[in-house]
Amino acid sequence: MKLFLSSYHLGHNPQKFADLCGDTKVAVIMNAADLSGDYQSYTDTVIASLKNIGLDAYELDLRKYFDDKSMLQNDLAEYGAVWVVGGNSFVLLRAMQQSGFAKIAKHRVKHDTLVYGGFSAGAIVATPTLKGIELVDIPGQVPPKYDPEIIWEGLNLYDYSIAPHYRSDHHESDAVEDVVAYFKEHKMPYKPLRDGEIIIVNT
Q1: How far apart (Å, rounded) are the C-alpha atoms in residues 140 and 70?
Q2: Which of 17, 102, 168, 202 could cysteine-pair with 195, CB 3.0–4.6 Å?
Q3: pLDDT tens readout for residues 181-194
């Protein structure tokens, strides 16, 4: 299993993600930003950052599969890695469930046929639960065509909850202090990540 979980973008060691991926194609999952006003410029920036470290990256919009999950299995088969960006963790998890990505990705990551990389929301959804994240992300934000049901169970690829942007120069850092306090109060195992820090799993 190969995971690259970052607080902010590719962190201080972007080459380590490139090393995990090798020469495979990377699917860029932007759906955490589906409510963003600068979606296209954000997408262009993310893809450029991956190309700068030698990766062959393309956007894979999970909304395309909401009405036909069967297509995703074949389309995702072209890729050996995914890069899942930050934004709203609850929106992202809805997209993963509605498209069928959650089931496919969990199976492939655990069988070592897909590298999972992501930052902020992309890292959070890889954990067992989104409990506590409602203190920084709004669960009730629902883009068009999304199921309004709030999903709390994460992909469970990583055993700890993650608090990104911890004590960093980021606009969400103050709210993340409340998230960490929630994790402590509920005795949840967690990892705080400052911007630049990453978690790598390669087993």
Answers
A1: 28
A2: 168
A3: 999 999 999 999 99
CA distances to 23, 118, 136, 151, 163 from 95, in Å:
27, 15, 19, 10, 21
Parallel, antiparallel, or unpaired for β 161-163 and 25-29?
A: unpaired
Q: Which residues contact 74 (CB under 8 A, 6 or more apart)?
A: none
H/E run at residue 84? strand 81-84
Counting as low any pLDDT under 50, the low residues of the chain are none
* Block residue for tokens 């709390």: 152
| Domains contained in the chain, CATH given | 2-202 (3.40.50.880)
Residues whose CB falls within 8 Å of the CB of residue 67, separated by 6 or more in sequence, listed in order: none
Structure tokens, 44: 């262009």
